[in-house]
Predict the structure.
Amino acid sequence: MNTNDSAATSYTTLRRDSVHEVEIKRSRFITYLFRVEAEAEARTHIAALRKTHFDARHHCSAFIIGPDRMAQRSNDDGEPSGTAGIPMLDALAKRDTGQGSDLSDILAVTVRYFGGIKLGAGGLVRAYSDSVSQALDHAALTTRQRLRIFELPAEHALAARYENELRSAGYQLGDTHWGDAHAVLSIGINDGPAASEQLHTLIATLTSGAGILRASHTTWVDS
């Protein structure tokens, strides 16, 4: 899927990978959280943890990928069906980030070292769900925003002034390309009609109607 074609223009994800451990009735539950952008990347992390924790009984996992959260998978890895992967996935999918339940591009892997006491189906569901929830409580999150990039050709003598005015107005500027005939400014805005209209209005005022904005492409950035 092309993430730039997504209906979502922002979502929440991990700022950095993290790990958190809890002990429940002598069983150790070690939950790793990874930021991932493809299923293959998620499966590479899972395979690596199987090698690292080769002596653990279970390596259960769940992930959500994509701005629209279309890719959602879970694996019980030997635990009774529905007692590990699905509760982990629910903990990710239903997490309230302050902007609703929009957590994505995230993989949770919970490694369990059995402590000799059986937890039962209900106990396992609670243990795996709580392990992921507690790991998220300790994780650093960030908002990922889709930007629409516009280009503005400008005379060399005016380009620096336009840059200063746009930065003062709070716009994100990329590298300016200095050509022989003119400079081209790169301006990033939140990808939406209101922000686009606002930028066009500002450019019209700034250039006395002479400036012509060209829509270039979209990109995702951490805010």
